[in-house]
What we know:
Layout: E1 5-8, E2 13-14, H1 26-39, E3 45-50, E4 53-58, H2 60-68, E5 74-79, H3 84-98, H4 103-121, H5 127-134, H6 138-148, H7 152-162, H8 173-188, H9 194-209, H10 220-230, H11 236-248, H12 254-260, H13 263-287, H14 294-309
Parallel strand pairs: 2-4, 3-5
Antiparallel strand pairs: 1-5, 3-4
Helix pairs in contact: 1-2, 3-4, 4-6, 5-6, 8-9, 8-10, 9-11, 11-12
Amino acid sequence: MAESLTLLDPKKLHRNPDNPRLIFRQDELNALADSIAKQGILVPLTVYRDHGKFYLLDGERRWRCAIKIGHKSVPVIIQPKPDKLQNIMMMFAIHNARKDWDPLPTALKLQDLGNIFLKSRKRKPTEQELADLASMPRGEIRRLRKLLALPKQYRTMLMQELEKPKQEQELTVDHVLEATKGVEALRKRGIIDVRQEEKLRHAVIQKFRKKVIKNTVAPRLLSKIARAVQREELSLKEARVISAKLVDDPNYSIDQAYHDSAEQVEMSHTLTQLLDRVTKALKNYQDKGVKPNEELLKAIVKLKKALNEF
């Protein structure tokens, strides 16, 4: 059971060693410090005691601001000391309520959570078990695991971006994940090899930085190029030329690459599928002897006119 509310010197508090939140942007801290200076700390911090020291469970931003503006005491609620697994689970539960942690630091702590589970249960946790422990949807767990699979250089790059004020950030986690998925699709179809995959991923990320690519999901067009090759609607040679140009030309966008390669065949493929479905639906309609209503007849006339003009 939690102890009653009390006041403690913020300088005697310590950050939680298992807090997944590693990034504290200065502009956000400044705004919170201004609010605390005017109104005080309205929500008490939550701490636990361990060997005579107090460690934060919730309220690290408020604690940092209190020290900055020179508060001599802060309101705290003292909780029983959790074990390591409980500690991390509590941190994730707080995250689930606040939704203000950055994905990469959260992913790194999720890895710790998985390692603790492995050590105690002698097996790796399932996706669902991790979701339950972290109080997160399975889809978010899957996304965080993809982040952990990124090469170290990209995780380092993203951490450096996260330390900047949001308005100055050029890259996000989604930029890197979308670039990774897009170039991976080309590699899986044999359009590029592993070495070329890394070069292309780096090139796409740089194009995001320089705003040559402005749409976060633009790399999904690379998957469409890969599918066009798979269906033999686009030659392997053409796709390789386009992929090389994306690496070699810093101003060549993915939209341009798609337009120069798979856009026409992709539109033709999509239209063919739609017309096939319409034809089958009309045949099914006729076979059942259903009399078309006025709305359907108008639509058929409109379609005939479009086909005649094609």
